[in-house]
Design a protein that fits this description.
The protein has 144 residues and is mainly β. It has one domain. It has one helix and 13 strands. The strands form four sheets. A six-stranded antiparallel sheet has the order 1-8-11-12-3-4, covered by helices on one side. A three-stranded antiparallel sheet has the order 5-2-13, with no helix packed on it. The radius of gyration is 14 Å and the shape is globular.
Length: 144
């Protein structure tokens, strides 16, 4: 296993959960992550997030809630206000145990979340670029 295969699932899960309340140190325990080509988003909440330069540092925050999402496929375009993403990557995170930050539970064992972005560089993995735009969907289901 490579370093990326070991660390990335934990980072992605922590990123997804922490984005719901603002970044902090979330504890992720053994999430499974994989890529999907199509998901069912009809039972979940979808929120678009923006990671951008604010003064000397980067800041992430919600752009707004997306309504009416049902099925999302690679190549689809999702929009919120003046922002849009042509979906080029769908990451699915299945939590194998509870994820907490302090005394808050961010995800429970069995929860499934999805992240949509144009590509992997459109996720806020690196503060050097300080620009990212993605959608977090709770309670999603991979279709294929």
């Amino acid at each position: 296993m490579t370093f990326d295969q070991i660390i990335r699932p934990h980072f992605v899960a922590a990123l997804v959960a922490a984005s719901a309340i603002g970044f902090g140190s979330a504890i992720a325990n053994d999430p499974d992550t994989f890529k999907a080509r199509r998901i069912d988003a009809s039972r979940g909440d979808a929120v678009m997030y923006l990671h951008q330069q604010v003064g000397p540092s980067c800041k992430s925050g919600p752009v707004g809630k997306l309504t009416g999402l049902s099925e999302v496929r690679l190549g689809d375009t999702v929009k919120q206000g003046n922002y849009s993403i042509q979906v080029g990557i769908i990451e699915v995170i299945k939590h194998n145990s509870d994820m907490t930050m302090g005394d808050r539970t961010l995800a429970k064992k069995g929860d499934v979340e999805c992240v949509l972005a144009a590509n992997s560089t459109a996720l806020p993995y690196d503060d050097k670029e300080c620009r990212a735009l993605w959608v977090r969907i709770t309670n999603c289901q991979p279709v294929d």
